């Protein structure tokens, strides 16, 4: 085998919005509210192989704004997908590459879709703060290890 055949390969094949939904269950009355809603953000990253060395990574971001305990202002969810070519990488490094590296690539696109959808729904845009996907990955690994014991 030639030396170049063993070089790690990482490339972005395609970035896309896989799913997008927005709900404003209390419209139109909610637009008359003057109170500032509480905003909750949830993130989830999933991956699956598509072909030899080709993977789909999906970052799902859910943003919920509520007034009090029971009044939803809006709920937006985007599944930002990407197809990535990842080759000649040790198996144990695949998961961190997808859950950290690919998630870092997908996040700015998901953040833009979220902000745009909320604005189109008639609200002030929500600009999501940067996310430390490495810390999230480590935290999830620790939780998985604790639940196994």
CATH topology: Bacterial Protein-export protein SecB
Backbone CA Rg: 19 Å
H/I helix tally: 2
Query: N-to-C terminal Cα separation, in Å?
Result: 43 Å
Q: Give the CATH H-level superfamily.
A: SecB-like
Cα shape: elongated
Strand percentage: 35-45%
Fraction of helical residues:
25-40%
Major sheet size, sense and barrel closure = 4 strands, antiparallel
Highest CATH level, the class: Alpha Beta
Quick synopsis:
The chain is of the alpha+beta class and 149 residues long.
Layout: helices, strands, pairs:
Layout: E1 9-23, E2 38-51, E3 54-67, E4 71-87, H1 91-120, H2 133-148
Antiparallel strand pairs: 1-4, 2-3, 3-4
Question: Overview of this structure, please?
Answer:
The chain has one domain: Bacterial Protein-export protein SecB (Roll), CATH 3.10.420. The longest helix is centred in the C-terminal third of the chain and has 30 residues, at 91-120. The model has no long low-confidence stretch (mean pLDDT 94). It is 31% helix and 40% strand. It has a four-stranded antiparallel sheet with strand order 1-4-3-2. It is elongated and about 60 Å long. It has 149 residues and is an alpha+beta fold. The chain starts with 8 loop residues before the first strand and ends with a helix. Strand 3 (54-67) and strand 4 (71-87) form a beta hairpin.
List descriptors.
149 residues, alpha+beta, 31% helix
